[in-house]
Amino acid sequence: METPLTIESTQSGLINKKFKAVELVDAYLAKINVQNSRLNCFLTISEEAAYKSAKKVDRLIEDYSTKAFEDYPLLGTCVSYKDLFLTEGIRTTAGSKVLESYIPAYSATYVARADKAGAITLGKTNCDAWAHGASGENSDFGPTKNPWNLNYVPGGSSSGSAAAVAANLTLWASGTDTGGSVRQPANFCGVLGLKPTFGAVSRYGVVAMASSLDSMGHFGRCTEDIKRVFSVTKGEDGRDGTVKNSPFLKPKAKMKIGIPKEYFIGGVDPSVEQRVREAAKVFEKEGVELTEVSLPHTKYAISVYYIISPAEVSSNLGRYDGVRYGNGRQSFGAEAKRRIMLGTYVLSAGYYDAYYLKAMKVRSKIIEDFEKVFEKVDAIIAPVSPTPPFRLGEKASDPLKMYLADILTVAGNLAGIPGLSLPFGFSGEGLPLGFQLLGPRFSEDVLFQLGNIFEKATGYKPNVAHI
Amino acid sequence: MKLTKKEVLHVAKLAKLSLSPSEISTFEKQLSDVVNYVSELGEVDTKDVEPTSQTTGLTNVFREDGEGGESISSEKALSGTEKIHNNYFVVPQVITKEK
């Protein structure tokens, strides 16, 4: 059977008895078994758990019919989790040999909520080890390939999740976005990706990268699906002190989008820029006002990020000593070592003020830029990555060059604001292009509304990569 | 500026990482590249600017006493390792015996 492409079509198929949840799992697993050897997007396939959940889903539909979908909003939706999300009883590696055989004793809040909402876990997806990377090539278990062209990277660090959604090996997938790790692979794989507001979704039970930046997001094939999943994952759980049930901003009838000039200067590929400007015109035609805005400290965001993020990484990865679980510190790969070293250096005696404290101050300036702009506009439109997907190996030997791939996404994390990455056509080489919308804190509903307007105006249909 | 071999070794010691000779020379160069790049922040005027450590605006988030909920069982907590003795984790020796 062909697996449906959206939550709506999956659930209506189940209600109308076109297929059973068990048959959905059959179809996904069959496809994963054929394609994973080429894509390498799954590290673990949880067949037993998937069939157990699917049988429960079929029973619930049998017993309660449409009522079951009211009580379980994600009922029958097949999900794959980035291998940073702890899943009780299912191996969780963080893409690292340190956790090669780690079986968590509990599940992340995010996972527990999706389970409770009726989702079916297919497996765990490949990623750059500890979420360090923009290409997927830093996984200790080999790189994930871009389903649109196997010689290209799928983006990172949530590489396997984005590739699995693009190749229709899962209906939706989770990801973490610390410096662009959901938005950028979504952009490279031609799917949608949400980085929520910092403090909107609990991080409890997700392997931490940089604790003031980590956002728990997800991938899907339309705005409506992104919104539905977010309605389940968001909100306080009493286990992550940064999460607050804040009121979300409501979309206005007449909206204004800002085009930040600093996101289009130097190094942005013309094909990328052109697509973003075309997307802006689509909004304009739909009655959204466009205006140029300025975020003057944008050019410093990457430096701030590559001080603050490694500093927090070096602290978070300090706990991996191989005593209570996992292997010892000799099992860290090259990139993890590099970031631990960098973070330890900028925090060490004599350098703290010059690097870490300075970066925290410039972070304030970056936040101030956004605050000023959001007094005037409801959202910002910008490119996600300065280039279309690049070839495997192209940047792997030069860490600094790879770090610069994050240049247009990290500011959103430093400011703690939400971002939605949307696909919009393909390059001349057949590789996906798209753009991101950024809004003020807790403006997810505004971004979803804009996503819906865009999809309707362009007659958007989900694309699936056939390999 | 350039990180010296001595600095690389010092940082590795602080981070409890053992590096091979080739890693040491690679990191000397790569870390110097990154540190040089991020040094551009020196040109930003941050006089009277408060540093930002997090973006939620929340301070001192407490829970009520007794609201902790259930905690993980010792059996589950110990499930990640085979190095157990009498229901405790076995840890590497950290205090040297007197000779």
From TrEMBL, chain A:
MF (Gene Ontology): ATP binding; glutaminyl-tRNA synthase (glutamine-hydrolyzing) activity
Pfam family, one: Amidase
UniProtKB keywords: ATP-binding, Ligase, Nucleotide-binding, Protein biosynthesis
Catalytic activity: L-glutamyl-tRNA(Gln) + L-glutamine + ATP + H2O = L-glutaminyl-tRNA(Gln) + L-glutamate + ADP + phosphate + H(+)
Gene Ontology process terms (BP): translation
Source organism, top-level taxon: Bacteria
Sequence ranges assigned to domain Amidase in this UniProt record: 23-447
UniProt-listed Gene3D superfamilies: Amidase signature (AS) domain
Residues of the active site: K82 (charge relay system), S157 (charge relay system), S181 (acyl-ester intermediate)
InterPro entries to which the protein is assigned, alphabetical: Amidase, Amidase_CS, Amidase_dom, AS_sf, GatA
E.C. no: 6.3.5.7
Enzyme class (EC, first level): ligase
GO CC annotations on file: glutamyl-tRNA(Gln) amidotransferase complex
PANTHER family (alphabetical): GLUTAMYL-TRNA(GLN) AMIDOTRANSFERASE SUBUNIT A, TRANSAMIDASE
Its biological purpose: Allows the formation of correctly charged Gln-tRNA(Gln) through the transamidation of misacylated Glu-tRNA(Gln) in organisms which lack glutaminyl-tRNA synthetase. The reaction takes place in the presence of glutamine and ATP through an activated gamma-phospho-Glu-tRNA(Gln).
HAMAP family listed in its UniProt record: GatA (MF_00120)
Subunit structure comment from the entry: Heterotrimer of A, B and C subunits.
Family as reported in the entry's similarity comment: Belongs to the amidase family. GatA subfamily.
Name of this chain's protein: Glutamyl-tRNA(Gln) amidotransferase subunit A
Gene this chain is encoded by: gatA
UniProtKB/TrEMBL annotation, chain B:
UniProt-recorded name of the protein: Aspartyl/glutamyl-tRNA(Asn/Gln) amidotransferase subunit C
Any one of the GO BP annotations: glutaminyl-tRNAGln biosynthesis via transamidation
Keywords: ATP-binding, Ligase, Nucleotide-binding, Protein biosynthesis
UniProt record similarity statement: Belongs to the GatC family.
GO MF term list: asparaginyl-tRNA synthase (glutamine-hydrolyzing) activity; ATP binding; glutaminyl-tRNA synthase (glutamine-hydrolyzing) activity
Function: Allows the formation of correctly charged Asn-tRNA(Asn) or Gln-tRNA(Gln) through the transamidation of misacylated Asp-tRNA(Asn) or Glu-tRNA(Gln) in organisms which lack either or both of asparaginyl-tRNA or glutaminyl-tRNA synthetases. The reaction takes place in the presence of glutamine and ATP through an activated phospho-Asp-tRNA(Asn) or phospho-Glu-tRNA(Gln).
InterPro entries: Asp/Glu-ADT_sf_sub_c (IPR036113), GatC (IPR003837)
Record's keyword annotation contains Iron-sulfur: no
EC number, as in UniProt: 6.3.5.-
Keyword check for Protein biosynthesis: yes
Top-level taxon of the source organism: Bacteria
SUPFAM superfamilies: Glu-tRNAGln amidotransferase C subunit (SSF141000)
First-tier enzyme category under EC: ligase
Reactions performed catalytically: L-glutamyl-tRNA(Gln) + L-glutamine + ATP + H2O = L-glutaminyl-tRNA(Gln) + L-glutamate + ADP + phosphate + H(+); L-aspartyl-tRNA(Asn) + L-glutamine + ATP + H2O = L-asparaginyl-tRNA(Asn) + L-glutamate + ADP + phosphate + 2 H(+)
Assembly and oligomerization: Heterotrimer of A, B and C subunits.
Organism for this UniProt entry: Candidatus Woesebacteria bacterium GWA1_42_12
